[in-house]
Write a structure and sequence with these properties.
about 400 residues; mainly alpha; two-stranded antiparallel ribbon; binds protoporphyrin IX containing FE
């Protein structure tokens, strides 16, 4: 179970915060259907397209890439939900969606502080008013997008997507417009920042590890070559790229040091401690990821730890606890349902990034500081700038083809 933060302030029922029960089960079923391994395989071409678009934005640039990664993950999740790519003419939609998603996070974070220090409720901080304004705007935008989906569907210009599934199952599942928009908002919230921030950590960390980059470049040159872009089908042949992603998820998990709190559903005993039902349990992911009995020098970034790991991230996350590669996606019934999509986005993003660029610290600029971060629901690196230097002549030709 979770606390009711977003429901109380935002009048919105985030799946991640909803208590275990029939409503959660129903919504989770829909998300599960939309994010299953099979569904994600059907999204592969679009993940490739959006990842290439991100590479275009980074071409020969010296920038903080977080904005470009956000645009890419938003593009993916928008198509997954509405069955149609965001077009250049949709720039305003992109801007508004990004703003609403990040604003809701801010309100949830601020409200968590108010929950912790209830006397703040007496101060005129205007959180409820701010939350209402955000949600009114956010709901009317998702409504507009759903209406547009229905029109596009009539014209046959959509592909199978979450909106289609929902439209067909609304009656049978007994869900109304409010539930539908909650779900869309939840998927945007769950799917945008986490994957984008992981790619941002990957970039910052790689900028500080040129030897790791060289090894990845060698793997890509040997297995993919320079005459074509890597694609999802290359994944099995790129163990070092996969190892980099896993090590970043262990080293800097985007959901941070502590996972969302869970709650015991019944009395339990753990190592002699009695845990009554309804106790909030905060799991120290950082301690698990930095356990020196499991990882040698856990404070070091070392992808070699995962070089021999052949199973997928979702398979490992569902395997025996002692053998899991990391805890970044949570565990048990509440484990992240977006894990298949995330794995595909992280693979394509990282493979393309390393195929295309050498990532260097800005000349005369400051190196990213990966030992500090911005805290919040998602733990993101402090703003940084790096240079994306094309590795060879084919980069421009192929990513702009
Ligand atoms: C690197 C990428 C991602 C990471 C690290 C991540 C991590 C997490 C974590 C730690 C949780 C809480 C699990 C728990 O309570 O044990 C969670 C929940 C959730 N995630 Fe993700 N996530 C990622 C990507 C995604 C994507 C791409 C989507 C969907 C489009 C998504 C949708 C959700 C949803 C809906 C929940 C709530 C599930 C529930 O409570 O039933 N996530 N995620």
């Amino acid at each position: 179970m979770r606390n009711d933060t977003s429901m109380r302030v935002l009048n919105f029922a985030a799946l991640a915060e909803y208590h275990l029960g029939d409503y959660w089960r129903k919504m989770r079923r829909i998300v599960h259907h939309a994010m299953s391994q099979r569904a994600v395989e059907s999204y592969t071409p679009l993940i490739e397209i959006e990842s290439i678009e991100t590479m275009r934005q980074l071409f020969d640039a010296t920038i903080d890439p977080e904005g470009s990664f956000h645009r890419g993950t938003l593009g993916v999740i928008h198509t997954v939900i509405y069955g149609k790519r965001l077009e250049t003419s949709d720039d305003l939609v992109v801007k508004d969606l990004l703003k609403y998603i990040l604003d809701t996070f801010q309100v949830i974070e601020a409200d968590a502080v108010v929950n912790l220090l209830p006397f703040l409720q007496c101060l005129p901080i205007g959180l409820d008013k701010k939350a209402k304004k955000i949600m009114d705007g956010y709901f009317s935008l998702t409504k507009k997008l759903f209406d547009k989906f229905k029109e596009d569907k009539k014209c046959g210009i959509t592909q199978p997507c979450v909106a289609e599934y929902i439209l067909e199952h609304m009656e049978e599942e007994g869900i109304d417009d409010f539930d539908v928009h909650n779900l869309f908002i939840d998927l945007f919230g769950g799917g945008l920042d986490t994957s984008a921030v992981t790619l941002s950590w990957i970039t910052a960390i790689l900028a500080l590890h040129p030897i790791v980059q060289e090894r990845a470049h060698a793997e890509l040159d040997a297995m993919v070559g320079r005459d074509r872009l890597p694609n999802q089908a290359d994944e099995a042949n790129l163990p070092f790229i996969r190892a980099i992603i896993r090590e970043v998820l262990r080293f800097r998990p985007p959901i941070g040091w502590l996972n969302f709190p869970h709650q015991s559903v019944q009395d339990d005993t753990y190592e002699g401690y009695h845990i009554p039902a309804d106790t909030s349990i905060v799991i120290n992911v950082h301690a698990m990821h930095m356990d020196s009995s499991r990882w040698t020098h856990p404070e070091r970034f070392d992808p070699d730890r995962y070089l021999d790991m052949t199973e997928s991230i979702p398979a490992s996350a569902n395997g025996p606890i002692a053998k899991r590669d990391n805890m970044a996606f949570g565990w048990g019934r509440r484990m992240c349902p977006g894990i298949f999509l995330a794995e595909a986005e992280l693979f394509m993003g990282t493979a393309l990034l390393l195929w295309s660029y050498r990532i260097e610290v800005e000349k005369g600029g400051k190196a990213p500081n990966i030992n500090e971060w911005q805290s919040g629901i998602v733990m993101r690196p402090k703003p940084y700038k790096v240079s994306f230097i094309p590795r060879h002549d084919k980069v421009k030709e192929l990513i702009f083809a």
